[in-house]
Design goal:
GO molecular function, one term: mannosyltransferase activity
Largest sheet: none
Oligomer: single chain
Shape: elongated
Distance between the termini: 98 Å
CATH class of one domain: Mainly Alpha
Helix content: over 70%
CATH superfamily of one domain: Tetratricopeptide repeat domain
Number of helices: 45
CATH architecture of one domain: Alpha Horseshoe
Radius of gyration: 38 Å
Keywords: Repeat, TPR repeat
CATH topology of one domain: Serine Threonine Protein Phosphatase 5, Tetratricopeptide repeat
Number of strands: 0
Protein name: TPR repeat-containing protein
């Protein structure tokens, strides 16, 4: 609003004058001239023209930027461009301010806006080009550089950018021509010689590259970066002694810089000259005793050497050297987590995330803590953000793979761990998890290779060693398996998993006495270790001594009365001896101890049917549920009995009622998925969702894996089917139905020989099973096709 300066002189009064102005005019004679002048200046300030206001905001923004207050500068530059949307200089300065705060995306938009308003703004074009180049958008970056050169062919920064882009695109000859043109005008510019050295290296001309670096070093200004570039060149040429000498020269020329000492520490670490590494860190600290980054790097060095107390001390010292503590606390939290000091790690992570809720390393350690607590879904939410924001950082992919693996989401886990291995190929944990996936998928050669790599990277990686031993077992390389597990047992005498695998190897070698001794040793140390008792029972059953097997399980139940698996095992043994009442008693006890376990329901239902008591049992459960509808185990038994009787509609209704009350109840989800998959017109989508729900809740249950695998097979996802069915078959190798399903999936995936072998193995089992006739006919058909 423009105001005439003589606001209060006597003028003809306008009839449309605002009321406030009339009141002010009425009393103006009472005001001194000084007060009137102050009022007029105040009004002028409040209603200045837009040109003056935008310029005022722009000047304030420049002042804030000069003082390093970039957030305040951003606000002022934004105010300026709101007033004038064609204020090119303000857009450019806004881009610089965003760049200073690390917001490259907004900075690029601002530089592009500046260019759209003022196409001759070469600085904005070149800044945009640099950001595009950093994002590997070579063509877009080149386009902007060429605009500058079209207007000014001698523009030095544009020439340097053009040479850089063409070099990155693999066009060193074109880059060389551009640099030579620039050197003709600027022969004493050290940057051009540095760039020329990179071009010579790309052209496989190391002597010329060294000469260019030496030329750059001889030119002003004195810059430690040139010394370090020359040292880096020597290292890449495997001339470590020259690199060391160059860095010592840099240290003498720049005594206040820690950089050459830190570079020397890297060289000495590669040579394993650890005393010299520590000396170099001491020299770096002498040059810059208050630099927290030196302590961080020293802490990392100590961690690599396993000197964890010294690493912790270095991180703690770093905290005293800076006000910006988030990065250091995150490193310290990561150290504590790896030492299993989870409470200390969690406390530090909380502080880090209070300062920056999206701190990368702080978020990663938080996710690790959640995985450690079994909160895999919460961890995956955090890790999904991390892998999206940092797609070249391998560690979040690995932790995410662990979380999916814990949930039984093997396909997602496999995808993530493969990305982790590509990004961090020397990560022993990622290699081990990949070996585990390949083993479960029956890719024994792949599992062997990954386990061996993991052991090379981390010789004490017992998980990788176990996988390798299990590969030996599966390949019938029993001497190698025995040797490996014997050595592991000598190194880890208290590790029951290793000891059990040693026993299993003896069992596979038909060395029953040695195997039984080992399994008894395990049970003496841990009475509730189910695999050991199951292996003892397998020995006694091979010896056809059912009574001894029952006696042994009964004795172990007294030592571990709350172990549901033992009651289940006892029930199965009684079932094998046709003692149905004793079997039902044991299975009921197993249900009470573990209501979510699927196997007891199936066995009880089968028993009820075989003993002709199905209707009686159904009536009993219906009466009970009329009084206690919330009893999920009772309703589950009812549903299974209805299913066994052939009342699929009634069974499905009961399973749906269970899931309405307990949406995550795995047995009901599994059985309903199975029934849906076997309908005349199956809803395989609904069946898959239920099977995945069951898998998430019971990731290790082989019956759940069998259901999911079968549904994958019916949907045509044969590789996914093989993964699930292989897991089920590994857990229940004597279950012929699972073997039949696996054989069909292998055949559908094109693995004809392996499918035939699996079906032959299945048909050789003693067990009778509903699909035996179909399996026999299928094998005959396959053999005829092969012949």
């Amino acid at each position: 609003m423009h105001l005439a300066l003589p606001l209060f002189v006597n003028q003809p009064r306008a009839t449309t004058q605002p009321r406030g102005t009339r009141i002010l005019m009425k009393h103006c004679k009472l005001l001194s001239f000084a007060v009137l002048l102050a009022w007029s200046l105040l009004l002028l300030a409040g209603c200045g023209d837009p040109e003056q206001k935008k310029q005022a905001h722009y000047e304030k923004g420049l002042n804030y930027a000069a003082q390093g207050e970039h957030s305040a500068a951003i606000l002022e530059f934004r105010n300026a461009v709101r007033i004038d949307g064609r204020f090119a200089d303000a857009y450019f300065q806004l881009g610089l301010a965003h760049l200073a705060t690390g917001n490259a995306q907004n900075a690029l938009q601002d530089f592009e806006r500046a260019v759209s308003v003022d196409p001759a703004n070469h600085d904005a074009l070149l800044h945009a080009a640099r950001l595009l180049l950093a994002g590997n958008q070579h063509a877009e970056s080149l386009q902007r550089v060429e605009k500058v050169l079209a207007a000014d062919p001698e523009h030095l920064e544009a020439q340097i950018m053009l040479a850089t882009i063409t070099l990155m695109k693999g066009e060193p000859e074109r880059a060389a021509a551009v640099v030579e043109q620039a050197l003709a005008s600027h022969p004493e510019l050290d940057r051009l010689h540095l760039l020329q050295s990179q071009i010579y290296l790309a052209r496989q001309q190391p002597a010329a590259a060294e000469a260019a670096l030496q030329k750059a070093l001889a030119l002003p200004p004195a810059d430690i970066g040139k010394h370090r570039a020359l040292a880096s060149f020597y290292l890449n040429q495997n001339q470590a002694n020259k690199a060391e000498a160059q860095l010592r020269q840099a240290a003498a020329a720049f005594p206040d810089s820690p950089a050459p000492h830190l570079d020397l520490a890297v060289i000495y670490a590669q040579r394993q000259e650890l005393d010299k590494v520590e000396t170099s860190f001491a020299d770096a600290l002498a040059a810059a005793p208050h630099n927290p980054d030196i302590y961080l790097r020293l802490g990392a060095f100590y961690r690599e050497q396993g000197r964890l107390e010294q690493a912790e001390a270095a991180y703690q010292e770093a905290l005293t050297k800076t006000e910006a503590k988030a990065d250091i606390r995150a490193q310290l939290a990561d150290l504590y987590f790896n030492q299993r000091q989870t409470e200390q790690a969690a406390a530090l992570v909380e502080q880090v995330l209070q300062e920056n809720r999206r701190h990368p390393l702080g978020s990663l350690v938080q996710a690790r803590l959640l995985v450690n607590e079994g909160k895999n879904d919460e961890a995956i939410t955090i890790l999904s953000r991390l892998v999206r924001d940092h797609p070249r950082w391998g560690e979040p992919f690995y932790v995410k793979a662990q979380a999916h693996f814990n949930k039984g989401e093997n396909e997602l886990s496999h995808q993530d761990v493969e990305k982790a291995v590509r990004l961090i190929p020397r990560h022993a944990g990622a290699r081990t998890l990949l070996a585990q996936h390949l083993f479960q998928q029956r890719d024994l050669d792949g599992a062997r290779n990954e386990a061996l790599v993991a052991l090379q990277l981390q010789p004490n990686n017992f998980r990788a060693a176990i996988i390798l031993g299990q590969v030996f077992q599966r390949n019938n390389e029993l001497d190698e398996a025995l040797q490996l597990f014997t050595r592991m047992n000598s190194l880890l005498p208290d590790n029951l998993e290793v000891l059990h695998n040693l026993g299993v190897t003896h069992l596979a070698r038909q060395e029953h006495r040695e195997a039984a001794t080992i399994f008894e040793e395990i049970l003496s140390k841990r009475p509730d270790f189910t695999p050991a008792l199951a292996s003892l029972v397998a020995i006694k059953m091979q010896q056809r001594d059912l009574d001894a097997a029952i006696e042994r399980v009964t004795a172990q139940i007294e030592k571990a009365p709350n172990q549901a698996d033992y009651r289940l095992l006892l029930g199965e043994l009684h079932l094998a001896g046709n003692d149905f009442d004793a079997a039902i008693t044991a299975l009921r006890q197993a249900q009470e101890l573990d209501p979510a376990a699927l196997r007891p329901y199936l066995l009880i239902a089968r028993l009820m049917t075989e003993t002709g008591r199905t209707d009686e049992a159904i009536a009993e459960y219906r009466a009970l549920l009329a009084k206690r509808p919330e009893l999920t185990p009772a309703r589950m038994n009812l549903a299974v009995l209805l299913q066994q009787k052939g009342d699929d509609a009634g069974a499905m209704a009961a399973y749906r009622e269970i899931l309405a009350r307990a949406p995550n109840f795995a047995p009901a989800a599994n059985n309903l998925a199975w029934l849906l998959a076997h309908e005349p017109k199956p809803d395989l989508g609904a069946a898959l969702r239920l099977a995945m729900l069951a898998k998430e809740q019971a990731p290790t249950d082989p019956y759940v894996a069998d259901t999911l695998g079968l549904i994958h097979y019916l949907r045509g996802s044969h590789d996914l089917a093989i993964r699930q069915l292989s897991q089920a078959a590994a857990a229940l190798p004597d279950n012929p139905t699972i073997g039949y399903h696996l054989a069909r999936a292998l055949r559908a995936a094109g693995n004809k020989k392996e499918a035939e072998e699996e079906l032959q193995r299945t048909l050789q089992l003693d067990n009778d099973f509903p699909e035996r006739e179909k399996a026999q006919k299928l094998l005959t058909d396959w053999q005829q096709q092969t012949s």
